[in-house]
Amino acid sequence: EHTPGGEGFWVITRHVDVERVARDHAAFSSQTGPGRDGAGGTIIEDLPGGIGPGVMLNMCDPPTHTRIRGLVSRGFTPKGLAPLRSVLVDRAGLIVQAAVDRGGECDFLTEVAAELPLQTIADLMGVPQADRHQLFAWTSAILDFRGRDLADTTPEVAEAGIGMRAYGEDLVRLRRREPGTDLLSTVIAGGLSDAELGAFFSLLFTAGSETTRNSIAGGVLAFIERPGEWERLRRDRDLTPSAVEEILRWTSATAYNRRTATVDVEIGGVTVAAGAKTTHWYPSANRDDAVFADPHRFDVGRSPNPHLAFGQGLHHCLGAALARLEIATMLDALLDRCAGFEPAGTVEWGRSNKHTSIRHLPLRLVS
Questions:
Q1: If DSSP states are collapsed to H, E and C, what string results for 65-93?
Q2: pLDDT tens digit string along 284-339?
Q3: Fewer beta carbons under 10 A from the terminal one: N or C of the chain?
Q4: The pTM is what?
Q5: Do 355 and 253 meet the contact criterion of CB atoms below 8 Å apart?
Q6: Closest CA to 190 of 51, 314, 319, 70
Q7: Count of beta carbons in the 10 Å neighbourhood of residue 26
Q8: 6 half-sphere exposure, CB direction, 13 A CA radius
Q9: Terminal-residue alpha carbon distance, the chain
Q10: SS3 content of the chain, % helix, strand, coil (to 5)
Q11: Strand 256-261 to 28-29 pairing
């Protein structure tokens, strides 16, 4: 009775089952299912068809998903991102050095962790850098259930939604007149509808700024709580790639995704009826002791590390390579300038069951 519409949902927690659901897009739809009249999506509460389901990349099934993703996927491969590497290195260095120059005490989430992904996605989407913090504020308000419950809204959330939508529409009009080399210009040239363009802008800007900043901040919090792992990484910088993967596993920045069963399907020894909601939980799958040895230990040298932080199959995160590059670049910048970290206040977590988010992380960078 506590769920939207009073309708229950299945909870899928084992690594093997989460991976199966993520890979089987035919049986587990990201869009809708029988008896839902086109409603559905990837959050617990149903969204009306055409609002998210059927137009937003992460809430589409083939062939719509294939068409939209195909327009931009090449730019998110490691090869496509290679020209960005030197830019990210310079930016990360400037961001961290600025915090060090201010005495080292900072809100690590807003002043450091958020800045690199925020600047980067703004460039990729053709958003002027001067506007990035306004968009950051809007996306934070929309994703954080501060003072509200599921399906509720507040004046702040309504204002953020209107602002984000209007900004995206204005930018689309500008890029129609003055196309550039950014991702928005690319999808406009690909013939997306106005609804698809608005959804594309909102999704990529939000996903490109939200999840990675939480992974970076959550990773540094893990290092504060386990300083021996930071020392280990400082002594052996060759561990950086495995440290990135462990940060992704440990933080699991997307907490869950929802699917809708399209047919009666057996999973985990039970039958899920066609039309039923399923939710699969990445933090649980990424701590499954059938897959990970000592799963509740943060281990920068963990290998193998078959985490599911980016999902699997058709909806494997489009920005996975970019997120890995941003986390690795920020780790390098911190390793070059910081001997360690000290807490300078209380961590403030976001209120959400969808994103493992941090609002504020006050700390001191120790030079």
A1: HHHHHHHHHHHHCHHHHHHHHHHHHHHHH
A2: 999 999 999 999 999 999 999 999 999 999 999 999 999 999 999 999 999 999 99
A3: N
A4: 0.95
A5: yes
A6: 70
A7: 12
A8: 1
A9: 52
A10: 55, 10, 35
A11: antiparallel
